[in-house]
Design brief:
Length: about 270
Amino acid sequence: MAIPGHVGRLTKVGQHKKSACGRDIEIWELNLKDKEAILSEWATHFRKHYISDADLPEMVAGTGKTNAEYLRDVLFPDAKVAPGPSLRSGDFGEILVADYIEYLLGYWCPRELRYQERWNRNDSTKGCDVIGFRFVADGQNSPGDELFIFEAKSGMSKSDKNRLQDAVTDSDKDKLREAMSLNAIKQKFLGREEMDKVARVKRFQNMADRPFRRISGAAAILDDDVFAETDLSAVDASNHYNSDNIQLIVIKGPSLMQMVHSLYERAADEA
């Protein structure tokens, strides 16, 4: 599997931090030096989460807009009017975490469906943020199969509080959201008659009869300035429903909100 250029810019910081409950917090850095070299490919990858290249011409037809105008005015979260900017940063963080678990950890992560069927571009999609599936062997049920559910929180303003703790707290709600989120993914694949993918999701809908490993994750995607002011040592996941199997990560980088807007602009302009 080819790793996209922007994912190759993620590097793990050697020294981990410890949470208040004694868990390791992995720190990853997003190196954006010479970002122009990767921005075009990244923007295309990003745009396809909202609409496929095959569907774009037909969806634009009849609107009187160019491709770029359609994406900016109809599909992408608003760049200026709230809650558009916060939704942009949130989507960016979720998609980056999905890239992390798919390309670096090797999970199957069908995430485009989460963004392609929004009715309101400025309303976030409900349910679990990022879901990954890993199989010991396709077509067979193994107790070693893994369902990985990540909660992702972006922090790109100094006013943002401890976003990793927010991610841990909201991840605890996935106990209730899991069944509905799996059902929604399965239903969308069924509507597309992608029955092989329906079967892959179905495998994780009844843990009692078909055991598997459930792993939880909490991620904070932080601007460098926010990271510097965040007390990661205060994060506590001891009361999480899946506390024995929760992973904590932080992805940090410089001027991330500026990066987010640049990505959306290029994704529209190059469509």
